[in-house]
Amino acid sequence: MGELKGQVAVVTGAGRGIGEAIAQRLASMGAAVVLAARSVEDLNRVRGSITAAGGEAEAAAADLQKESSIAALAEMVRQRYGRCDILVNNAGVGKIGRPLHEMAPEDWETVMSTNLRGPYLTIRAFAPLMIAARSGHIVNISSLAGHNPLKNGAAYAASKWGLNGLTYSVAEELREYGIRVSVVAPGSVNTKFGGGAAEHGERKIQPVDIAHVVAMLVTQSPQSFVSEVLVRPTRKA
Ligand SMILES: NC(=O)c1ccc[n+]([C@@H]2O[C@H](COP(=O)([O-])OP(=O)(O)OC[C@H]3O[C@@H](n4cnc5c(N)ncnc54)[C@H](OP(=O)(O)O)[C@@H]3O)[C@@H](O)[C@H]2O)c1
């Protein structure tokens, strides 16, 4: 598969879980993938497995909570590749487990700055490259918690409801430049998200299932785009 040959993809949260699977998939389709997350060890492991399989990947340590870190990431991509065809805003944190009135303000900030402000800042940093090219894909990884109430996860749900609104609105702002902006909303996926143990892990949605959806979105024929994909497990756990 070389459908993405010559294209550059930036994937946030690519050090493990869903982001790792998305990065592997895009690299297997021929894209040069820039892997962004804080843990350099994780990024180097993912880069190693992509290059061992014949793909192209680069590890780029970045903290999405920091504007300067995102600006540095975008500048590296601009200087090295001069383009960004695909941006996948996947990095996210949960801080799930307590009712909102018991949540510490620092945890609220962490959730919002990673899950909602992070995608705003990456779009701000990378959209100019896409606008110059008059093409591009932005895929934001939201959650079914962005459609439903989530008891003891109000901040997380609010960040994902917000991400959906951001996505639909930015899609309207960028469509005139040939840039397509989509959101993927998975149910519970078999990863270490929130540090939780994988109960009935094999019955859950797998990271490769989300990677498959992203691959589908970025290979959609140019005259149309898919705004949102909701992903559910076939069997209930
Ligand atoms: N797993 C689920 O059940 C599920 C369901 C629906 C939606 N989602 C969404 O899917 C996305 C990925 O989740 P996952 O399950 O793959 O989670 P995960 O296994 O915990 O991976 C999260 C990734 O995000 C990175 N990250 C977190 N904070 C970051 C920051 N400040 N700067 C840069 N990178 C950061 C982590 O790397 P570092 O810690 O090294 O930075 C890691 O690579 C999230 O947006 C999540 O909300 C997950």
From TrEMBL:
PROSITE patterns: ADH_SHORT
InterPro entries reported for this sequence: NAD(P)-bd_dom_sf (IPR036291), Sc_DH/Rdtase_CS (IPR020904), SDR_fam (IPR002347)
Gene3D superfamilies for the chain: NAD(P)-binding Rossmann-like Domain (3.40.50.720)
UniProt keyword list: Oxidoreductase
GO molecular function: oxidoreductase activity
Domain of life, per lineage: Bacteria
Gene Ontology annotations for the cellular component aspect, listed alphabetically: membrane
Similarity remark: Belongs to the short-chain dehydrogenases/reductases (SDR) family.
PANTHER family documented for this protein: DEHYDROGENASE/REDUCTASE SDR FAMILY MEMBER 7B (PTHR44196), DEHYDROGENASE_REDUCTASE SDR FAMILY MEMBER 7B (PTHR44196:SF1)
Protein's name in the database: SDR family oxidoreductase
Source organism of this protein record: Paracidobacterium acidisoli
Lineage, top ranks: Bacteria, Pseudomonadati, Acidobacteriota, Terriglobia, Terriglobales
